[in-house]
Amino acid sequence: MISKKMQQQIKDGTVIRAMFQEGKAMAKEFGAENVYDFSLGNPMTPVPAEFNQAVIDAVKTETSLELHGYMDNAGYPETRQAVAEDLNRRFGTEFEGKHIVMTVGAAGALNVVFKTLLDPGDEVLAFAPYFGEYRGYVANHQGILREVQPDTETFQPDLADFEAKITESTKAVIINNPVNPTGVIYSAETIRKMADILRKKQEAYGKEIYLVSDEPYRELAYDGNEVPFLTKYYDNTFVTYSFSKSLSIPGERIGYIAACPKMADCSQAVSGLSVANRILGFVNAPSLMQKALVASMGAKTDVGYYDRNRQLIYGSLTELGFTCAKPQGAFYLWIKSPDAEEKKFVEAAKKYHLLLVGGTTFSCPGYVRLAYCVSYEMIQRSLPAFEKLAKEYHLA
Amino acid sequence: MISKKMQQQIKDGTVIRAMFQEGKAMAKEFGAENVYDFSLGNPMTPVPAEFNQAVIDAVKTETSLELHGYMDNAGYPETRQAVAEDLNRRFGTEFEGKHIVMTVGAAGALNVVFKTLLDPGDEVLAFAPYFGEYRGYVANHQGILREVQPDTETFQPDLADFEAKITESTKAVIINNPVNPTGVIYSAETIRKMADILRKKQEAYGKEIYLVSDEPYRELAYDGNEVPFLTKYYDNTFVTYSFSKSLSIPGERIGYIAACPKMADCSQAVSGLSVANRILGFVNAPSLMQKALVASMGAKTDVGYYDRNRQLIYGSLTELGFTCAKPQGAFYLWIKSPDAEEKKFVEAAKKYHLLLVGGTTFSCPGYVRLAYCVSYEMIQRSLPAFEKLAKEYHLA
């Protein structure tokens, strides 16, 4: 038998897999065009042509050893340098290549950071609602995830509860901005207050508390909203990033960690990240992708596509009487369940072939998440189904 | 401060990094052509042209979503199928795509297997000398690595000590064939006896004990030696593989796990592997590489290159009076230290600009490892230095 822990994790994962299977079965029964799967956050805009060209150019011009060989576990020096310069140009930061570690996506980056930071029993705070995978990432390294309760008015972090939940066991705080699942962006004001609390608690406990920022949706910000860059607010910060969304390449598994140059013992921390990258079995971020990035840094997929979807779905659903958090970034819409039991609402939606994910997955029951990284046409086709769902719940 | 565990791991990693830095410093002082770095196992033969062409073709012909998007955590169905068919064709096995999980290299594969199998305190046996990274891979998942003592006559596993060390806490046994660092191939005879012992112990303890085979060097076998395919000998077997060596693409991080169809609860085990791939932050093996593999399955770099190196270095060093295990596979030569203290021998070699790795790293003091995945010309240039080293130790 496999491990008891894994047997439990397989069971825990069953809900989303079951929905995936159900969606496939529905598509078979009713036709793919009549099933509206809003459950998955799979980017679907085209990869920028310059990125694909950079891949081809690298294969044609670089030697095998240079292109496909081992490099330092932290990545190619030129890729780390290119990331540092790109960040400095955009955010006025002062990164050097030595502060950047290239990773196997943001999921890899987060595991590398937690492996570097956590001793058994160390606590990591997360603001509900949050991406459920964080529970696994923290548990992988014997940390304990503690939840800060949601502020269901604004879906900004509840800073009073945050302050109350920091203890001398708190080693890190994870934030995700823009937020999956709410689509909200934590404001500069919020981040400033959060940083003040963290500094106060660091002093009170005489220890470092690290801010870990998960930012795969950074470029997906709408209506001129800005996503604060955290190293400007708090020194003990690791920014983790994935090119999955900005370049539409989630399958390639390429991202990075940027360690704030002013953090405590920064050079030791980066050594730790590099060792963790190796020991966890990533070894290094995929080499061809690292090379292609250097030549196409700054390339971006069409984020306007998601904005158009956002406006259509948010406008239509609020008009139908659904209560939604106003999405400012990412590609998710956070809908208040009109049913006291969110599970029943998810089931009711399925009757109309609408697939949504319940908020319990994100530690925030009573809500559902809709991923609008789908075709505009699918959203259009789905609207009559939402209308029927609204009628069933007697919404305005 | 980062975690105490990681601070220790950074210290533990210092020896090899120090050697790497020392090599660079020596190259600067004496000229790169006068420094003979045999310390790293970095493949250096060219990538097969058909593989690079398959990469370019995939980028030019596939849609973004299909080429760079998310797929099932276990990999693309066509890639899993292609691996299964390739194994069946070569080894007469009966894999289907559903028994294969694509991974981020063999290091990723091993971590995924251990995450799936181990509960805290479970023991994993490894045969000394072994690849030192296994210690970290097992510890990542709270397992305990126990060593089986080396048989310094043959460097085949010491099966008596193996049998004695299996306890009711034993969950898995890791073998690496051909072996890094000795270059020896465990014979079919050895594997058959090992499997008999395991079956006996499974029955005695009324539990499964898994064999985990790490096979990145499978294709590097010389003199007509065959590498036994383990699922034919023992049912509870996971074979982990990397294309790093056969295609010379270690930087790309692409490999797989093949779960023996006859293992206990195979379908649950594969579900576990898939969940582990996701939770550990790999999510999936890099997508473009998976696509390129389908079109170029069976492509192979020039392994004859390593064979030529092997003959030169083994022939020359034994002639100079060094005692070496006869290398049958991989690209390593295992040399008995003529100094009672291997560290002193490593230091003596450095005087002649020869960089070798001490056997203590592989839990087998008194030996050193030489990696001959270097240019033939470098080996030729290094021979006078070895001659001086042999003279210093008054070898025959």
Would you mind describing this structure in some detail?
The structure is a homodimer of 396-residue chains. In chain A, the strands form three sheets. Chain A has a seven-stranded mixed β-sheet, sandwiched between helices. A three-stranded antiparallel β-sheet of chain A has the order 9-12-11, with helices on one face. Chain A folds into two domains: 4-47 and 302-392, Aspartate Aminotransferase, domain 1; 49-296, Aspartate Aminotransferase, domain 2 (3-Layer(aba) Sandwich). In chain A, 43% of the residues lie in helices and 13% in strands. Chain A is α/β, with parallel strands linked by helices. The N and C termini of chain A lie far apart (53 Å). The interface between A and B is large, with 78 and 78 residues.
Strand order of the largest sheet of chain A: 2-8-7-6-5-3-4
Instruction: Give the biggest beta sheet of chain A.
Output: 7 strands, mixed
CATH class bucket of the largest domain in chain A: Alpha Beta
What is the β-strand count of chain A?
12
CATH superfamily of the largest domain in chain A: Type I PLP-dependent aspartate aminotransferase-like (Major domain)
| CATH-derived architecture of the largest domain in chain A | 3-Layer(aba) Sandwich
Q: State the oligomer.
A: homodimer
Give me the CATH fold name of the largest domain in chain A: Aspartate Aminotransferase, domain 2
Amount of helix of chain A: 40-55%
Using only C-alpha atoms, the radius of gyration of chain A works out to 21 Å
Q: How confident overall, as mean pLDDT of chain A?
A: 96
Structural class of chain A: alpha/beta
- Write the element-wise H/E pattern of chain A from the N-terminal end onward: HHEHHHEHEHEHEHEEEHHHEHEEEH
Biggest chain contact: A-B, 78 and 78 residues
Strand content of chain A: 5-15%
Task: Count helical runs of chain A.
Answer: 14
